[in-house]
C-alpha cells in the first residue's frame, strides 16, 4: 500500500484534567530536578574548596606550631630581658642620684688631701683621709657652711708623731646630705 503525503495536522483530543495535571507535574519535576542537581553540584564544589582550604590551614598551623616550639626558648629569654629591664628602670628611678653631690664635694676637696675614702649610706657621707691641719679646717668650714650638707662633724683627727702643721693628719668627717635628688630615666615616650 502506498501512502501519500498528509499535510494536515493530526488532530488531538482536548486535554483532560488528568492530562493537564500530568503535564504540569512532569514539567515542574524537571525544573525541580535540574535545580536540585545544580544545588548538589554546587555543594560538592564548595565542599572540595573548603576541604582544600582546611588542609592548607592545617599545614600552616602545623608549620607555625613547629616555629613556635623552636623559638620558645628565645621567647623566654626576651620575656626575662623585658622583665629585668622594667625592674632596672624601677630601681634606677627610685634610687637617689649622688652624682651632683659627689661632683660638688670633689670640687671643694683641697688638693693636698691624700688617701681619701668617701662612703655613702643613704643620706650620710663619711670621708676619711690624710691632710695638713689647715686643709682639714678649710674642708670642715666648707661642709658646715654648705647648703647641701648638714650636721657636719669632724669625728676623728689623728695627729702623727711630728706635730708640725704641714705634716698630714688622719681625719674622718661625717655629714648628712640635705636633699637627695632622685634619678629619672629619660626615654623617648616621656
- The helix/strand order is HHEEHEE
Termini separation: 115 Å
Strand order of the largest sheet: 1-2-4-3
Number of helices: 3
- Average pLDDT, rounded to a whole number, is 83
Structural class, from helix and strand content? alpha+beta
Q: How many domains make up the coordinates?
A: 2
Radius of gyration: 51 Å
Strand content range: 15-25%
User: In which range does the helix fraction lie?
Assistant: 40-55%
Number of strands: 4
Low-pLDDT sequence parts: none
Shape call:
rod-shaped
- Biggest beta-sheet profile: 4 strands, antiparallel
Description:
With 190 residues, the protein is α+β, with helices and mostly antiparallel strands. The chain has two domains: 16-95; 99-177, Alpha-Beta Plaits. Helices cover 53% and strands 18% of the residues. It has helices at residues 17-94, 99-108, 133-145, and strands at 114-121, 124-131, 149-158, 169-177. Strands 1-2-4-3 form a four-stranded antiparallel sheet, with helices on one face. The longest helix has 78 residues, at 17-94. The radius of gyration is 51 Å and the shape is rod-shaped. The chain starts with 16 loop residues before the first helix and ends in a 13-residue tail after the last strand. The mean pLDDT is 83.
Record the SSE blueprint:
Layout (H helix, E strand, L loop, with lengths): L16 H78 L4 H10 L5 E8 L2 E8 L1 H13 L3 E10 L10 E9 L13
Write a compact overview of the structure shown:
Helix content is 53%, strand content 18%. It is an alpha+beta fold and 190 residues long.
Amino acid at each position: 500500500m502506498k501512502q501519500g503525503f498528509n499535510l494536515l495536522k493530526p488532530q488531538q483530543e482536548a486535554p483532560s484534567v488528568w492530562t493537564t495535571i500530568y503535564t504540569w507535574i512532569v514539567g515542574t519535576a524537571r525544573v525541580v530536578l535540574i535545580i536540585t542537581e545544580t544545588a548538589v553540584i554546587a555543594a560538592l564544589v564548595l565542599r572540595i574548596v573548603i576541604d582544600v582550604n582546611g588542609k592548607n590551614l592545617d599545614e600552616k598551623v602545623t608549620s607555625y606550631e613547629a616555629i613556635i616550639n623552636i623559638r620558645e626558648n628565645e621567647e623566654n629569654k626576651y620575656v626575662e630581658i623585658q622583665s629585668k629591664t622594667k625592674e632596672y628602670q624601677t630601681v634606677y628611678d627610685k634610687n637617689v642620684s649622688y652624682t651632683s653631690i659627689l661632683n660638688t664635694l670633689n670640687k671643694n676637696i683641697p688638693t693636698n688631701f691624700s688617701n681619701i675614702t668617701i662612703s655613702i649610706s643613704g643620706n650620710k657621707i663619711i670621708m676619711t683621709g690624710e691632710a695638713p691641719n689647715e686643709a682639714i679646717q678649710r674642708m670642715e668650714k666648707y661642709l658646715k657652711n654648705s647648703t647641701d650638707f648638714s650636721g657636719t662633724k669632724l669625728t676623728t683627727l689623728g695627729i702623727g708623731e711630728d706635730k708640725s702643721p704641714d705634716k698630714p693628719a688622719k681625719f674622718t668627717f661625717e655629714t648628712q646630705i640635705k636633699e637627695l635628688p632622685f634619678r629619672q630615666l629619660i626615654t623617648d615616650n616621656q
